[in-house]
Amino acid sequence: MALTGVLRPGHVALRVLEMGPALKHYVDVLGLIEVARDKAGRVFLKAWDEHDHHSVVLREADEAGMDYMGWRVDSPATLKKLAADIEKSGLASDLGWVPAGEHPATGERFRFTVATGHVMELFAEKDKLGNDCGTDGPDVNPHPWPDNLRGIAPSRFDHCLLYGDDLDGTVKLFREVLGFGLAEQVTAGPDGSLMIGAFLTCSNKPHDIALIRQPVKGKFHHASFILGSWEEVLKAGDILSRNKVSLDIGPTRHGITRGETIYFFDPSGNRNEVFAGGYIYYPDKPTITWTEQELGPAIFYHDRKLNERFLQVFT
Ligand SMILES: [Fe+2]
């Protein structure tokens, strides 16, 4: 197996103000599939092509935002090793284990807080539900997509973009302890030495997590879900309009990662993205640098400028 260690973003846990409207959004409009609820009222969802039990967790709270983001690692042995490495690095705080079963169908999770104030988790075990495409068994002779998809229907949860202050500390942990690559960065300052944006990958994708430097702790900008084509991004725009969903921007293209994108808000104000495209990342690919002066086209390549909401609206 060439892809080892941290495999992918495994789940994102979001706070919503009211579960009813949230589920109408995440299930009927975005098109995620509800797989479980627990006694605490949390709802667990997955995108159709994810085999793992769930990738999105919603809980009702007084304030929107992200509780934590979870990362799937390749084995229980890797989970133990990375937990020890994180502890040894001194780059995270509030370290601890969440027992198996606290998330349904999921093994124990190692939880820690990174320098930007975001809570992260690693886990190695989550039951496989499959993608409902098989014709002669769960993974035998599959169709290309399942019946009964609803709404936008992205195939997977892809990444989060987060806002926080100590970008250097978080990037150091992801790169040096968890083995992520820096696919792209945005730099500022007189000598370009201040990193204000980091796009990190643990895989072949242009990013699995992105961070923007802002004078805040633990803030959430968006959770993103992947579509198959630019045409599907346009159709997502149609579905969002039909359902009168609050739109942020798009459809347009990012300079960074080259993704074709549309940003919108759930009823609680959490930003979502669906996107397509991008490039294939390999660990020996040089890091792409965007200078602060070109931040506009880096984020929104067509408009060549940020909309006010990109920097000012987050949860
Ligand atoms: Fe994104």
Automatic annotation (TrEMBL):
PROSITE patterns: EXTRADIOL_DIOXYGENAS, VOC. The keyword Calcium does not apply. Its EC number is 1.13.11.2. Keywords: Aromatic hydrocarbons catabolism, Dioxygenase, Iron, Metal-binding, Oxidoreductase, Repeat. InterPro entries: Catechol_2-3_dOase, Glyas_Bleomycin-R_OHBP_Dase, Glyas_Fos-R_dOase_dom, VOC_core, Xdiol_ring_cleave_dOase_1/2, XylE-like_N. Residues 8-125, 156-277 form the VOC domain. GO terms for molecular function: catechol 2,3-dioxygenase activity; ferrous iron binding. It catalyses: catechol + O2 = (2Z,4E)-2-hydroxy-6-oxohexa-2,4-dienoate + H(+). CDD domains: 2_3_CTD_C. Its cofactor is Fe(2+). Pfam families: Diox-like_N, Glyoxalase. Homotetramer. Belongs to the extradiol ring-cleavage dioxygenase family. This is Metapyrocatechase.
